[in-house]
Every structure is written in C-alpha cells, then in structure tokens.
Amino acid sequence: MDNAEIADKLEAFASLLELADANAYAARAYRRAAETIRGAAVPVEPLVKSGRVRELRGIGRGIESRLRELVETGEIAELAELERDLSPDLVGLGRYLGLGAKRSVEIARALDVRTADELREAAAAGRLKDVPGIGPKTEAQLLEALSREDEPRPRRGLLLNRAWELVGGIASALGGEAAGDVRRWRDSCEHLAVVCAARDPGQLLGRFAALPQVVAVVEQAERRIVGVTVEGVPVELVVAAPDRFGTALVRATGSTAYVAALEPLPDAPDEAGVYRALSIPWCPPELREEPFREEPPPLVEQEDIRGDLHCHTTWSDGRMSVEEMGRAARDRGYDYLAICDHTPAVGAVRGLTPDDVRRQGDEIAAANELLAPFRLLRGIECDILPDGRLDLPDDVLSELDWVQASVHGGQRMPVREMTKRVEEALRNPYVRCLSHPKGRYINRRPENALDLDRLFEVALEEGVALEVNGLPDRLDLSGEHVRGALRAGVPIVCSTDAHSVQGLGNMTLSVATARRGWATTADVVNTGPLKSILR
Ligand SMILES: [Zn+2]
Ligand SMILES: [Zn+2]
What we know:
Helix content: 40-55%
Structural class: alpha/beta
Strand order of the largest sheet: 8-9-10-11-12-13-14
Bound molecules: zinc ion
Radius of gyration: 27 Å
Strand content: 5-15%
Largest sheet: 7 strands, parallel
Number of helices: 23
C-alpha cells in the first residue's frame, strides 16, 4: 500500500467519524495523520511493519493500531462498519435537508431504508409522517426541500474566501474551471459549481465523487453530478463535451437572469467563442448579475492598486509589528501602506491614546528609514462616538497622513440618528475615508440603519472616500452600494483591514467587490501615486 492509498483510507475514516457526529477531536486527528502520511518523504508501510510509525508527527498509539490493521488486512473494520451503518449518501442528503446525522439515521431506521434513493422513495410515498416526531409541517418542509434537489442551494451562503477554497480546490483537482457564484465574486455564495471538459464524462464524475471534499452524492445525470460536503453544502460538477465547454461555463457561471437574456446560447469550445457567436463583447463575470450586452467599462484590476490604506498592528488588535506589515506590503509591490490601528472607544481591544499615536509615529518613522522609498503612512481607524464626535482630538488627527473613521459600538441606532452621527464625522476636516460604512457582518449581523444616499451627498461635499473593506465577512461597501456611490460621484478605497501579513491578500476580495460595483481604475483612490494620497 503506498502513502496516498493509506492517507485516502484515513481521510475516509475521518469523514465518516464526522458524519457519525463522533468525537470531533478524533476526526481531526485522523485528518492530520492523513496529511502527514501524504506528505511523508519515506514509504509509510515499512514503518508501520517495523513498529516505527509513531516517529511521524501526529501519529499516536490509537492511529498506529488502525494503521497496522490497514497494512495487515487491507481494511479498517470499523470503517467498513461505519459505511454499512451510516450510508454517507443518506446522511449527506439529510444534512442538505437540514437534519443532523443522528436524526437522519433514526429516520432511516424507522422507515427501514438504507440509501438516499430509498429515502426519496419513502418520502414520495407519503411515509415520512409514519416516523415518530415528524408532523405534517416537517413532512411538508422535507418534501419541499427534496423537490428542489435539482437546483441545490446550501441553507446559508458561504463566505467568499471559504467558497473559493472549496470550489477552487475541486476545480484544480479535476483540471476544470470554477464557476457559479464564486466566479462572479458574490459576497455570499450559494451556487457552487465547477465545469470540466471531456468527451467521456464517466471518469471525471467518478473522480469527483471520490474527492475528500465530497462525502455523498445527492444527484447524478449523464454529464452532471451534485455532491455535498460534510457540512451539507452542495457542489455541482458539469462535464461538458469539449466543443461545448464555453457554453457550459457561461451557463454555470450565471446569474440566472443574465444567462436567460442571452438564450439560446450557441455552442462553443470557450467563452470567447460564445460571445463572438452572439456578436456581443465578452463580459467580466463580476458584471453578470443582470442582463447586459454592451461594451463593459474598463474595470479596476488588482495590478492597478498602488497601496493598502487600512491595516492593524500589535499596537491594537493586529498580530504583526509596524515594520513586518511594511515589509510585507513592499514585497507585494506596493508603494505605501497606511497603519490604521484602533482608538480607545472600540472597547473590545486595545486602542491608541493621543500619547500612543505619537509614540507609534516614532516607530513608523524609524521603519520608513529602513523601507524607503516605500512609505508607511501614519494613519488611524478612529471610532465615531455615539454623538458623532471622533475619538481623538483634532490636533492629534491633524498630524496624521490618513484618517479613517468608523462606527463600532452602538450600531442599533434608528436611521435618522445613525445617519446624523456618521454625517457629523464626515464633516471633520481630517477624515479622509469612512471604513466599512454599513457595519454589516455577512450572515451574522444586518447592516446599520443608514441613509446611504444622504451619506453619498455629504461624502461628495467633504471630499471623503468610502471604503470597500476586504474582510471576507464584511465586503463593505457591497458591489451594489459601490455602484450607488460612484453614480453619486464619490470615490472609493479598496482596503483589506488586514490584521496580519496574510490578511493583506484579501485585496483580491476588495477589488472584486469594487468591480461588482462597476469601479474603474480612476474611481479607486489607492490606484493613485503616494503624492495623491498625501495631498
Ligand atoms: Zn473597523
Ligand atoms: Zn480596521
């Protein structure tokens, strides 16, 4: 048995333990062991046989005995048993319907069914209401969810970073393209899809079903398969004939309204061919939300960004020093980076007092000596107090290169008060940008009550820019509101709000969100050179 085969078995075991709602720690331990074995430089089978496998990182006594069983018998008995008991496809279907694994197994026992297909049949025959605990209302909900199986959606959208990780991972494992909501960079992704090209789809459909990300198949047709992840998130694979790959990609990318307006789609091997045959210009996926056939505007690109204007350091809740953040930004090819730590009113984390701001200024100056001509900007993310005043006095703000203002506490104000509060802050002569203007956390906290049109007016009058915050759970302004701001003539800033060096990578999310709002290079403040920032 080679390392990959051993790792696959351990991974399957981990997935089944998760499905069984067993000890989460055990499942993680098996997954980690699988990873170690997959990456091991030496063959693992002889190590198991000679009793030395525990020298590998993360392999303890329990896992060692499973490995011995596997190497000696070619099987893990408990894995086979779990597979018999659990029928992962049934549990996956259950999760997708909103049922926990235990409940799915109970229902299956009560109905005496073993597979997802048998469950569907029993449901169609009206037998669900025979199960203890399922009333007419639950039955109706389950039947309704089952009827929507051919257009599967997760119960809650996935954040864009997680959706890219999942869909991008599957696409690269199968040599296909990511499509669906991630390709349009929607802030919360529901339709997760991958498109591949092959004359004969069988092999790809099989490889998809065997991917570690996919625990159960809920739907299969000749050139299409839908699997669910262990969290019950459905992912679709479309295998197009090579001469129709472009057509399948346009269709799977969506949105539904955009594609419907282009139908009937001509067959073509790539997207460019589809658009040529339609005699319309190619359309960036970020703009495919509504019917559109015109020449697209020259949207801002990642390469146009000259610097990042919002990040944190260990002075507040960041994890890296001023200098480390500066080096990382310089390594990304930026010309500048604004250090914008919090002020005391933020509450939950440390904030900078006027004295701290000045001491941090010395540290930034010292780092600039080392990093020149790259430039760290002295900035701040200054809290907007409930009455609209700022959390630092004007004489401190006046020393800084870049002042961002943001609302953190007291976000449940009614719309008039909240709008007034933010308006007041934008009137401060030192404020250059409003951070995460709407204050939402995707799927967790709704937007602040704000009259955005009024804010656009004030921002325009005061020359204040609005941020497109790149944190995956914020993406604030959203694309739709970026478009509103730009129509009103208000410029935007693409920022990451990074709390670590890795966080700087979220610029892709910010730029994509700006593109969804039709932003061109000229609309984005930080596509400009340093001197345009230091006005
Ligand atoms: Zn903030
Ligand atoms: Zn911040």
